[in-house]
Specification:
single chain, alpha+beta, Alpha-D-Glucose-1,6-Bisphosphate, Chain A, domain 4, seven-stranded antiparallel sheet, 4 helices, globular
């Protein structure tokens, strides 16, 4: 129980930091015919992420989940068989309706932690995913993440509705 309180405090600290004028964010909304619990599992379990994630400008990506920390994940992005970028993250909050990740992508200049905030809403047999990725440092990173989230959520919808 104490661990859950600590994590909630961390979520508030990260989300409620005053935004810098340089911070950019990406938002996406996707509705799919699926149960929200099933969608939450696909969003939260690292081994499922590679089934629906789409990484732009990448020939291949490898999904990694460190054995020592099950709430952490990583993606190594390859193009022409060379490692081009890495994404690392960890889960701050995971419930049936709300997931929050701290996310960092390198190389993109200085490695900077950003926040991915996902809300799920179930209405009848439809689940709506509302995603906001905030704290991005440049227009280039913003556009890359906008493309990645749009394509990834489209893949998730196809997977859930299959």
């Amino acid at each position: 129980m104490m661990q859950a309180r600590t994590r909630t405090a961390e979520v508030k600290r990260v989300i409620m930091r005053p935004p810098s004028p340089d911070d950019l964010e990406v938002s996406a909304v996707m509705t799919m015919k699926a149960d929200a619990r099933r969608v939450a599992n696909a969003l939260a379990i690292t081994e499922y992420m590679d089934a629906w994630m789409h990484m732009p400008e990448t020939d291949e990506f490898l999904c990694t989940a460190p054995d020592v920390a099950p709430d952490q994940f990583g993606f190594d992005l390859y193009s022409s068989r060379k490692l081009r970028s890495s994404i690392r993250g960890y889960c701050l909050l995971s419930t049936a309706e709300h997931l929050v990740y701290v996310w960092s992508k390198a190389p993109c200049g200085a490695v900077r932690e950003t926040v991915v905030d996902i809300h799920l809403q179930q209405v009848s047999d439809q689940c709506t995913v509302k995603l906001k990725h905030s704290g991005l440092s440049s227009m280039t990173e913003s556009l890359w993440h906008a493309t990645m989230w749009k394509r990834s959520l489209e893949n998730l919808r196809r997977l859930m509705e299959a």
